[in-house]
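Input record (one chain):
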Amino acid sequence: MLQLSGVCKTYGPESGGYVALRDIDVAIADGEFFCLLGPSGCGKSTLLNIMAGFEPASVGSATFDNDPIVGAGRDRMMFFQDAGSALLPWLTVEENMRFALRVRRIPKTSWPDVIDKYLTAVDLAQHRDKFPSQLSGGMRQRLQIARALAVEPKVLLMDEPFAALDALTRRRMHATLLDIWQNTGKTIVFVTHDIGEALILADTIAVMSVGPESKIMQLFRLDLPRPRDLADSELRKTAANIEALLAPEIDRSEARIA
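The corresponding structure, as predicted from the sequence alone:
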């Protein structure tokens, strides 16, 4: 579904500019839960922005369903860490849903059923008359997910959406997201710097090196049932392998900063 071939991203002059990404090759299948994992500053968000069509690759190709990615599209929906800034604070939960459906030109006759379906899916139907400021952080993220699902995108692109939440709320959001993913069959590309989060969620984890010239160092395939327990021996082994891969990268980054 999503394919990047030889993707490089340079900021500034092509010669002498900052090379954020170098030679990225990745193929993400329809319905896959794919995690981009790496330390802060490794280009994860830049790569996600290229998939979203928010910025072009400097070199290489990015395609969706075999068509070049040129600009944002209704088939790809982006999520951000701060749901509060993504929602319209002067609109209620239901009005935020209606706004998304209006912008995407969904027929009005279907609005009530669509809104009920997805607010129920994220357990917000009873809060439809509240404003975003009256919701908890986890509830705002659930609203962001419901609003995106309402316009029926094929891919959800999620940039560390749960990083600002407390540990208990994050675990609940993991369960909610996995439930939605399994029920809808959507493709999800999820950015995180948390190894445990990636192991709980992903079918495939792409471990990225520290920039500049960040690349995908290794792919880890997880053919394990869900829900998963981080105490599982197979997950502990994979976590150790990922940590061993990332440790030199983190040391290199800290040395450069020092």
